[in-house]
Structure formats: structure tokens, C-alpha cells
Design brief:
Blueprint lengths: L1 E6 L4 E7 L1 E6 L2 E6 L5 E4 L2 E6 L5 E6 L2 E5 L2 E5 L2 E6 L10
Parallel strand pairs: 1-9
Antiparallel strand pairs: 1-2, 3-4, 3-6, 5-8, 6-7, 7-10, 8-9
């Protein structure tokens, strides 16, 4: 499992464990699994997905992502909206 932190300038949006992270990098999507090589990426606009299936999803803009030694951090995100295992968006300002 990966230890994941999703942090916006205003608040910590998520801290916990998940089996995967798919993030919208500036030039395409990146996927992070346990044991992934260390990486750092500039994030763009799109959906940040935590876990497989009905995991948590955040529609974000900007920030950066870092992954190393079983820890993934997504920092400086500007959330547009997010859904936690639901079809109804929750707006964050």
C-alpha cells in the first residue's frame, strides 16, 4: 500500500493509504504503485484518482506530485471539485 497525502494551499484534502495513484501530469497521466521508482512531476488540469474502482477522485489544477519509497504526495493542488465514492460533486472554495 502507498501512504498518500493530497494537500491544497487551504487544507489537507486526504491522508491515508491506497493501492494506486493516477495523477494528471502537465504532459500526460502518471501512475504510481507501491515500489515505483522515485519521481517528481509538475501537475496539470485533470482528475487525480486514488485507488482502483470506486476510490477517491479529485478534479485538480496545478501543483506537483512526488513519489518515493511507498509514499506519494500531491501538493499545491487547486481543487475544482471532488467526489468521495459518490456521483454528487462537493465544491471546495
Amino acid at each position: 500500500m502507498l501512504k498518500v497525502s493530497v494537500i491544497s494551499p487551504e487544507a489537507v484534502l486526504f491522508e491515508g493509504e491506497t493501492d494506486s495513484v493516477v495523477a494528471p501530469a502537465y504532459d500526460g497521466e502518471i501512475g504510481i504503485l507501491t515500489g515505483h521508482a522515485p519521481l517528481m512531476a509538475l501537475l496539470g488540469d485533470g482528475e487525480l484518482r486514488l485507488g482502483t474502482g470506486s476510490g477517491r477522485r479529485f478534479n485538480v489544477s496545478g501543483g506537483f506530485g512526488k513519489g518515493e519509497r511507498g509514499v506519494a504526495s500531491m501538493v499545491g493542488l487547486r481543487p475544482k471539485w471532488c467526489c468521495w465514492q459518490t456521483q454528487h460533486p462537493m465544491y471546495i472554495f
